[in-house]
Amino acid sequence: MGELATELAAAVRSWPVGSASVAVVGPGGPIAVHDDGAEQKWASVTKLVSALAVLDAWADGLLSLDTPGGPPGATVRHLLSHSSGIAMDSDDVLAAPGTRRIYSNRGIELAVELAGEATGQSATELLTERVLEPLGMSGARLDGSPAHGMRSGIGDLAALATELLNSTALLPGVVTGLSTTVFPGLPGVLPGFGRQQHNDWGLGAEIKADKAPHWTSPQNSPSTFGHFGQSGSFLWVDPEAGLACVSLSDTAFGEWAAKAWPAVSSVALAAARPS
User: Fold this and answer.
1) DSSP state letter for 71
2) SS3 70
3) What DSSP state is assigned to residue 119?
4) For residue 119, what are the contacts with CB-CB under 8 A and spacing of at least 6?
5) Would the pLDDT of 145 be above 90?
6) CA atoms 113, 115, 121, 126: torsion sign
7) Each residue of 150-178: pLDDT tens digit?
8) Contacts of 226 (CB under 8 A, 6+ apart)
9) For residue 190, what pLDDT band results from cuts at 50, 70 and 90?
10) How high is the pLDDT of residue 1?
């Protein structure tokens, strides 16, 4: 896959960023990497780790997904899937639970708080002991909110993608819960890409489904799941292709990313498919 690494490096050189890394991941780990060696912020890609930690507490029998949390009528299930009805960064209620997909940092924070109460762990302990350490992500750390505070180099993000593509370290059902649509068909806004009639999410991961335009490639399957971050980061897993792709950069999400990420995703998919 040396040719793919060369293509990744060429793609990154065309991006209007100061620093960026990209890795393409198969079931056994990275198959091609362009690594500039820099540690970067994950921003909202952090939510994948936080959701996995909450789901691990659930799989451990310590927390129910039906535990009430957030506004009246909402549960952990609603909080993780951005369907509790609360606002982005406050407890303001904008809709009844289960009626709209409203992206919410606060919802993820509340879910982590509830898991912490159930396990006796702080947010940092919850994420570290239940996800980072089992996955060998020794260079990753939480620096701030569990909704957007993770940071690391590209290797740790690639380790997360490897587990999401081929789960061997986390408890059974955790990755499936993250990546399986809950409350299907809810409308809502996908940040950066506008209103979606079917804004599908799992318990922490966005599901591509029929969204268009999208931050992944048009060639990514509808079952593709993952997350992107405003810091210029993304992680997607395509179960049908048996492939994942991750990236970190020092430049905030914007028009450049909406064009560059689908393009580099297409490069990854094309190079990894048998000719």
Assistant:
1) S
2) coil
3) H
4) 57, 60, 62, 63, 126
5) yes
6) negative
7) 999 999 999 999 999 999 999 999 999 99
8) 48, 164, 205, 206, 216, 234, 235, 236, 237, 244
9) very high
10) 59
Query: Is it the case that residue 274 has pLDDT exceeding 70?
Result: no
pTM of the model: 0.97
Task: Round to whole Å and give the CA distance between 178 and 252.
Answer: 25
Cβ-based neighbours of 63, under 8 Å, separated by 6 or more: 54, 57, 76, 114, 115, 118, 119
* pLDDT at position 13: 93
Tell me, what CATH number does 45's domain have? Answer: 3.40.710.10
Stretch among 5-9, 14-18, 142-146, 157-161 having the lowest mean pLDDT: 5-9
Residue entry with tokens 């996955």: 135
Average pLDDT of the segment spanning 175-194 = 96
Going by their DSSP bridges, the two strands 225-229 and 40-41 should be labelled as unpaired
Are the beta carbons of 234 and 215 closer than 8 angstroms? yes
Q: How many domains does the chain have?
A: 1
In Å, how far are 4, 15, 227 from 11, measured between CA atoms? 10, 7, 20
Looking at residue 91, the DSSP 8-state letter turns out to be S
Instruction: Find the domain containing 26 and state its range.
Output: 2-272
Buried b (16+ CB within 10 A) or exposed e, 46-75: bbbbbbbbbbbbbbeeebebebebbbeebb
134, with CB counted inside 10 A (0-12, 13-18, 19+), is middle
Residue 239 and residue 235: Cα distance in Å, rounded?
A: 13
